[in-house]
Amino acid sequence: MSGLIGKKIGMTSIYDENGKNIPCTVIQAGPCVVTQVRTKEVDGYEALQLGFDDKAEKQSNKALNGHFKKAGTTAKRRVVEFQGFEQDLKLGDQVLVDHFEEGEFVDVSGTSKGKGFQGVVKRHGFAGSERTHGQQSMNRAPGSVGAASYPARIFKGMKMAGRMGGDKVKVQNLRVLKVVKDKNLLVVKGAVPGHKNSYVIIQK
To answer: By Cβ atoms counted within 10 A, which residue in 83, 93, 134, 182 is the most buried?
Structure first.
């Protein structure tokens, strides 16, 4: 699926033509540079490798700096492969936010916010036990996790406390509300995963 690499700027809200307030996310989408062209003859499949967000050459190794120099661009912080571009793009070409149109639907994937070690109430939405009848210490505890003598173990996949967040998440079918071409901004309806300034991948 064709798309772009972007950076989450933050959330805001806009009003539609009916006066309804719509929550939306602002994404800096591109400009992305074509850093490699995959072909069937050489690689066995067709794809375009896009690079986004400049960084200093000293922050990258010599092999990567040479790779980016072939495309006639500076070192990039993020590199992702995409398939399905309709236009004929060559090494060093730029893909801008006008790749998307207002009203179409996109999928946005990114890394969700890391929450650290969390209990079952926050991690899995457990209700917790009742607060009455004099018990105090088990309000947010998970309760029973299995039988004792048989099977004498906890089954795999049991919902328990543990590390939460920091996972790859894809949100599908977000409507593009606005495309601001002069600033390379994309405004999509709803929320996208990740914290502010985190990288996201927008796909058609």
So the answer is: 93
Q: How many helices (H) and strands (E) does the chain have?
A: 3, 12
Same domain, 55 and 102: yes
Residue 1 has pLDDT above 80, yes or no: no
Closest by CA position to 190, among listed 2, 23, 3: 23
Q: What pLDDT, on the 0 to 100 scale, is given for residue 11? A: 93
Distance CA 73, CA 33 (A): 8
Tell me, yes or no, whether 29 and 8 share the same domain.
yes
135 lies in the same domain as 41: no
Whether 76 and 62 map to the same domain: the answer is yes
Residue 86 has pLDDT above 90, yes or no: no
Instruction: For residue 98, give the nearest of 186, 202, 9 by alpha carbon.
Output: 186
* Structural domain boundaries enclosing 183: 3-115+168-203
Average pLDDT, integer, range 137-147:
88
